[in-house]
Amino acid sequence: MNGRAILAIYRYEMARMWRTIGQSVVSPVLSTSLYFIVFGAAIGSQMQEIDGVSYGAFLVPGLVMLSLLTQSVSNAAFGIYFPKFTGTIYEVLSAPVSAFEILCGYVGAAATKSLILGAIILATATLFVDLQIAHPFWMLFFLVLTAVTFSLLGFIIGIWADGFDQLQIVPLLVITPLVFLGGSFYSISMLPDFWQTVTLFNPVLYLVSGFRWSFYEISDVSPMISILAILVFLTVCCTIIWWIFKTGYRLKS
Amino acid sequence: MTSQDQILISAKSVTKTYEDGFQALKGVDLDIVDGEIIALLGPNGAGKTTLISIICGIVNASSGTVTVAGHDIVDDYRKTRSLIGLVPQELTTDAFESVWSTVSFSRGLFGKPANPAHIEKVLKDLSLWDKKDNRIMQLSGGMKRRVLIAKALAHEPRILFLDEPTAGVDVELRKDMWAVVEQLRADGVTIILTTHYIEEAEAIADRIGVINKGEIIVVEEKAALMTKLGQKSLRLDLHAPLTRIPDNLSAFTGALDLSEDGSVLTYSYDTSAERTGITRLLAGLAEADVRVADLSTHQSSLEDIFVDLVREQA
Question: What parts of the sequence cross the membrane (chain A) (predicted)?
């Protein structure tokens, strides 16, 4: 195990975050704060409580998930795509590091960044609403596993992408709609029966629901199903990445 | 290469066919001796970079095996890669990183504990020390090339691959780089250099391999290659012009050439032949009463040899 290499990649990626602090931290925090102000304070005050939770507080887990998912995906995708684009990937490929170590470095850094971001957003949220966390362990469990899983997904996208536009497509056209339609801002019980059934096919629902349960013990689906779902996503991403490294897909010619 | 020399890198029947069907290497066998500087010469697209990329682990070979210090590059990649430093052909650097941090990153990536003293030495040797805090994007092309060399040397490799290190580099920097290469050789580093500047190979290599169209045409000691394939010519400036080559020199027909104005006779001969024929030629000239004002010999350069080799194959 080349621990120093993992650390080198990890530090390098984290240094990139500090260099681009505005882009990687300030802008997601700002946009989340805007959501709080608009949905939480302005519109939320006109809305009734959902299962005994004020709408502003109900929003928090969904907003954290929104940032966590989009930032994990785009951080990790960019982190691996950029060296591919500039050609500096040659060094990582020629170094005595295993695929697993490369992955630990890049995905570890991307997940760390989005966790830092999630923490900042949670802290920001306490300025607007009264937060209570019923199950801190499960809250962290969902937070960490979601960050890792979607950083893995981002890594896959970064390897697959051929251009900067493709790098944007998945977060923009897939992740964002799934998050918006996955019950981040509402309980699916508010939807007509048909759309409730459709929503059950949205993987993000399970993450948001489980995460919200860890705060308020209210959920759209059973927390056990949520836990299972995140483990399934994790396994799927790991399998794809295992295949990528085994075949050298888009990494080695 | 003698039998005592230790073979450090050994490539056996290495082939590479890219996905688009392009066959970059057609069964390359190459042994590289510990401590030598070997230059791989070849035109663009000959397969030089592909061969290097396979040894370094960037490209997977289609078939064949490579061992480095006795370890297989696939099964024992950790051992082989930690011995190797690679300076790529393209100037692929991180624009926003500082010189110091990118070179330190390379050392960590290769699993070596931090050693600021070593990094400092490498940067000083490459005249990069005063630029250590600069962002790479602020550096000139030549300086970026030095940064790539510093990165490759950060983990104290035993083998250094230089892929066209002086392409697009000014003369001064090229001389600097040769000095660095000399220093590394003195430290016992084995250096594999690809180039299409023949003078570079001629100046610094011990052995020369010529690659063309995915095959190694020849690998020889530089001097041996030049004598083996080198033709020498003897130029005789005559006292008085001749109208034609004297009859008593008819034995030299083909090898002897009279210039248009008749004042210069050029005799081409093979240095490896048992008899060069020079004595006979001079005697013949004296017999024919031709007086020689001056004479000089010319050894064909590596460039002439290279052009001949590549043309022969085409």
Answer: 21-43, 55-82, 115-133, 140-161, 167-186, 198-215, 221-245
Contact A90/B at CB under 8 A: yes
Residues B207 and B282 in one domain: no
pLDDT digit string, tens, across residues B219-254: 888 887 766 666 778 899 998 888 888 888 888 877
Same domain assignment for residues B168 and B272:
no
ipTM value, please give it.
Answer: 0.83
**A101 part of a folded domain:** yes
Q: Which of A154, A167, A135, A168 is nearest to A61 (CA)?
A: A135
Residue B79: closest C-alpha in chain A = A96
Shared-domain flag, residues B152 and B18: yes
The residues pairing with B257 across neighbouring beta strands, listed in sequence order, are: B266
- Interface mutation target, options A82, A88, A100, A101, chain B, most CBs of B under 10 Å: A88
Q: What pLDDT, on a 0 to 100 scale, did the predictor assign at position B230?
A: 61
Number of domains forming the structure of chain B: 2
**Strand pairing class (B23-33; B37-41):** unpaired
Q: Is A1 on the interface with B (CB under 8 A)?
A: no
- Yes or no, beta carbons of B58 and A252 under 8 Å apart: yes
CATH of the domain at B120: 3.40.50.300
Domain of B274 in residue numbering reads as 231-299
pLDDT category at B313 given cuts 50, 70, 90 is low
Asked whether residue B310 is assigned to any structural domain, the reply reads: no
Residue B172 distance to chain A (closest CA, Å): 26
HSE (CB half, 13 Å, CA atoms) of A81? Answer: 22
CA distance linking residue B86 with residue B148, whole number of Å: 8
Q: Are residues B213 and B289 in the same domain?
A: no
Q: Is the domain of B223 the same as that of B236?
A: no
Chain B contact for A18, CB < 8 A?
A: no
Cβ B25 vs Cβ B51: under 8 Å: yes
A7 touches chain B (CB under 8 A): yes
What pLDDT, on a 0 to 100 scale, did the predictor assign at position A76? 92
Nearest to B60 among A5, A91, A248 (CB): A248
Q: Where are the alpha helices (DSSP H) in chain B?
A: 48-56, 77-83, 99-109, 116-125, 141-153, 171-186, 198-204, 222-229, 278-287, 302-313
Domain for residue A252, yes or no?
Answer: no
The tens digit of pLDDT for each residue in B18-77 reads: 988 899 999 999 999 999 999 998 888 889 999 999 999 999 899 999 999 999 999 999
Enumerate residue ranges in chain A where pLDDT < 50.
none
Tell me, yes or no, whether B161 lies in a domain: yes
Question: Is B305 contained in some domain?
Answer: no
The CA distance from B92 to the nearest CA of chain A, in Å, is 5
- Residue A44's domain comprises 3-247
Q: Which residues of A touch B137 (CB under 8 A)?
A: none
